[in-house]
Structure formats: C-alpha cells, structure tokens
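Hey, I was hoping to borrow your eyes for a little while. For a while now I've been wondering how a particular protein folds. The fold is given in discrete form, as structure tokens running alongside the sequence. Could you read through the record and tell me how the tokens relate to the sequence? Take your time with it, there's no hurry, and the full record follows here:
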Amino acid sequence: MLVMSLHKLTAGDGYTYLTRQVAAVDSTERGSSSLGQYYTEKGESPGQWMGSGLDGLGSVAVDSGVSEAQMKALFGEGRHPDADAIAQELIAEGKRSATALAATQLGVPFKLFEGATEFRTLVAQRFVAHNMAAGRKGNATIADEVRARVRTEVGIELFGKEYGRPPVDERELSGFIARGSRQATTAVAGYDLTFSPVKSVSTLWAVAPARGGPADRGGAPGGGRGRHRLAGRERHLHPVGD
C-alpha cells in the first residue's frame, strides 16, 4: 500500500527544499542497510525524470537523473530543464541572447513577489510615525482603535490612488483593505507528489536479505507502484478551470 502526499512548489526558490533533502549517504545497494540505518539516514534519493510531459521537452530522457540546474530552470524560472545548454547552442549559432532566452521559456514567465504589499508597508510606517510623535519607541503597542483608524486612512488613500475615486461604501473599502493586508504571494511552479509505502513494507525492505528477498526482486519500496500511481494521476487529474 502506498500513501500519497501533495505539496506545492512556489516559483523562484521553492524547489530548493528538495535539493537540500537529497541524502548524502543514500545507498543504491538494495537490501543492504540495517533497520537502524534505514530509519536514521535522512533525505531523499536523487530524482529521475518521468511522466508524459517529457514528450514535449525532447532532450530530457525518461529515467535520466534530475540535476539541481535542471530544477532551477524548470521550477525556479519556468524554462526548459536544459535551458542553459539550449541557450548556449543558439548563441553559438549566432542568435541574440534575448532570442535564446525566449526559446527556452515554457509559457508565461512566473510572477515573483518579494516583501510586503504597499498597504502593509505604509501602515507599518504610519504606526511607527504615530509612536514617535507621542515620544514612544517605534514598535510600542498601539491601541486597537488607533490601529483601525490608521488602516482605514491608508486604505482610503491607496484606494483613491489606484482607482481615482473614493470607495463607494464600507464594504468596498473593507474588501480593498483585506486584499492589501494579505502577504504578497508567488506563483506555483508545480506540485510535489510523494508516494510512501506503509511502515511495515519499509521495514520488510530494510531487513530483507540482499539476494532472494523482496528488495532483490522489487528494488526500493514503492518504486514501480509509484510510477503506476503517477500515470494514473496524469490520466485522471484535470487542470483547474476545466
């Protein structure tokens, strides 16, 4: 039995948690680890490319190893996994850098946001100014009614700046303030689907003999079945909006 977990990968550096988790001591020898080693060695095995989407990438072969540079290009920048090599080849052929870069882009570039929204930044500045004017430290506690008044003033100010008019009513203003209060988010570059066997299967794989045991016949726990599950997800999961 396999259990699947799902986590989103944000564009930019969201992929790095995967590269950091690749274990330096992972072994490819089947069934050779002791049970203690199996549970104490941390990290994930290096990844391999698989899935029907590889048909559109050309240079990426099924079961080939995934490099950090490829992950950065695909999940970090929304470009072909072999973007650097492709761009260098095009430039060598006489193409301009901008043309080479565009040729490696997969769809619309990811939207990346850094820091707080304009609303949050301006409200924080007003809080500090309020405290300083009262002769207190900039990070001193502010009464709830004062905080509400400042947020309203900033909301009306930024609303007028964006739309060229004042809010029609309190509902329109509160919606604008709610959106401005949220932390800026970054585009989702992909999803991490992790297929894990139940502990009883993992234990059997870890303690089985190297020859003649389950590990010798089936490799790492969940490997083949994980591929089958992935193929099933590709067939039956539909894009949002369909």
Observations:
- The longest helix spans residues 144-163.
